[in-house]
Structures are given as C-alpha cells and as structure tokens.
Amino acid sequence: xxxxxxxxxxxxxxxxxxxxxxxxxxxxxxxxxxxxxxxxxxxxxxxxxxxxxxxxxxxxxxxxxxxxxxxxxxxxxxxxxxxxxxxxxxxxxxxxxxxxxxxxxxxxxxxxxxxxxxxxxxxxxxxxxxxxxxxxxxxxxxxxxxxxxxxxxxxxxxxxxxxxxxxxxxxxxxxxxxxxxxxxxxxxx
Length: 189
What we know:
Oligomer: single chain
Number of helices: 3
Radius of gyration: 28 Å
C-alpha cells in the first residue's frame, strides 16, 4: 500500500468516526479548560449595627447616632483610610428608601480640608472598626429621613467605597466597594 492510499484510508476512518461520535467542539474544549473567572471577594464587609428593641423594631432616634461596622473578613491586616482626611471622608454613604418608595443616597457634603495627609486605621484579621454615625449631623448631604410626630419606617443600607489612587497604593490601603444588607428601621423623634 502506498502513502497516498494510507492517507486516504485514514481520512475515511476519521470521517466515519466524526459522523458516529461527533466532531470535536473546540470552543467547548477551550471553555472546559479555562474555568469562568470568579468575582474577587472583598476582604472587607460593611454592616449597620442597630439591634432589635423590646418591641421588635430597629430604632433610630432623630437626634441620636447609630453604628456602622467595617469588618476585616480576611486572615491579613487591612488598612482603611480614616474619615478625618480627604481620602476617607467620602467613603461611607447610605441608600435610603422612605415609606412612600422614594429612594436617595445620603452622603457627606463638600468639605474644605485644612492640613491634610494620608492617615489610616489597620484592622486586624476578623476584627471590626466601629464608626459612629450622627443621624442629625449637617455633614450628611441629602440627609436621612426627617422626623415627624409619628414614628417613620424606612429601609437603609450602608455603602463603603474607596477608589484607588497613588496614596492607597503607596500605603496598601484597601480599595473597592462593599454594600451592607438592606434593613428596616423605625425613626423616632
């Protein structure tokens, strides 16, 4: 048998195999070899810390404060900008929906910084930073829901976001965006 006949016979056998068993799908083979990339989980979580009261409400008082926790869920220390400087001042905001379905973002308004420098906290693994949020402070632009004679019920979630820049890279400060669970709260005067 000559080489030409061998090639012809091999091609015929390969053609029959493709018909019987299906042609290889190169795209599927490539997908199987390369798993779908997963979204990177953040080593930081944010949560609003307002416990249930005796009457099964999560209470906020219009002239009081509540706490937000920034938690390091990783096994490594995490650096977080302090809120007094321009790098960390705008990091925390809130998405609020009132009893009428109106939704808005509560964030800090414009602030003029005097002497400003990069300063950060280091949160140890599996520990939290507690931030005291003054509900009635004028620093919150758009503001939280105003109080009325009767209690008001609204939903809220915290958003903690730090954008990367040269200083965050230089000082190994966490950057990213994390959002808390939505909670229902009762506002009292």
